[in-house]
Amino acid sequence: MKETEFTACVLPLCDRMFRYARMLLLSSAEAEDTVHDLLERLWLDRERLEAGRHFDAFVMTAVRNRCCDRLRRRRADERRNDAVMEGIVRSSEGESERWELRELVRRAISALPERQREVLHLKEIEGYPTREIAAMVGCDEAQVRVILSRARAGLRVILQKMRDDERTTRTD
């Protein structure tokens, strides 16, 4: 597909793509990101695309697939955060304390950059050795150790800030 064909076929579908993604993801920001990523991918693969009767169906199916991928990642992140929290919560006493701590850790982990969350999960929850994590995420072992160090340090800072904020709120 040539540049002019791409422009003529894909760009008129952008609003429909966004509305569909927003309906599936329930988030305008995520829908916008998803559509943008898909448009970029389609642009890069435009030479292999063929305009035809069912081109819009192809594009909308691609939107749906991208949204499903994003939803799967979201659920995986939630499970990952829950698993980390469970490990921390086991050592805590009292049901209400465990719940509060679980929520605090969940928010702290979700505030970490995605790469740090991923590596932290693989190391601390799944128990993979550094060498295997490096192979999984596509970097060397030294970089994995740096990412883990930054994730742990970031988690400490975030948790401390959250605790300080909580104490300030209680005293007010």
Features:
mainly alpha; 172 residues; elongated; Rna Polymerase Sigma Factor, Chain: A; single chain; Arc Repressor Mutant, subunit A; 2 domains; 8 helices
Fold and architecture overview:
The protein is mainly α and 172 residues long. The chain is 81% helix and 0% strand. α2 packs parallel to α4, α6 packs across α8 and α7 crosses α8.
Topology:
Elements: H1 3-10, H2 14-25, H3 28-44, H4 55-89, H5 95-111, H6 114-125, H7 130-137, H8 141-171
Helix pairs in contact: 2-3, 2-4, 3-4, 4-5, 4-6, 5-8, 6-8, 7-8
Summarize the structure.
This protein is an all-alpha fold and 172 residues long.
CATH class of the largest domain: Mainly Alpha
- State the major sheet: none
Mean pLDDT: 83
| N-to-C span | 63 Å
Helix content: over 70%
Number of domains: 2
Overall 3D geometry? Answer: elongated
- Helical stretch tally: 8
Are there runs of 5+ residues with pLDDT below 50, and where? none
Radius of gyration: 21 Å
What is the chain-wise order of helices and strands?
Answer: HHHHHHHH
For the secondary structure, the number of strands is 0
Structural class: mainly alpha
The proportion of residues in beta strands is under 5%
CATH architecture of the largest domain: Orthogonal Bundle
Fourth-tier CATH superfamily name of the largest domain: Winged helix-like DNA-binding domain superfamily/Winged helix DNA-binding domain
CATH topology of the largest domain: Arc Repressor Mutant, subunit A
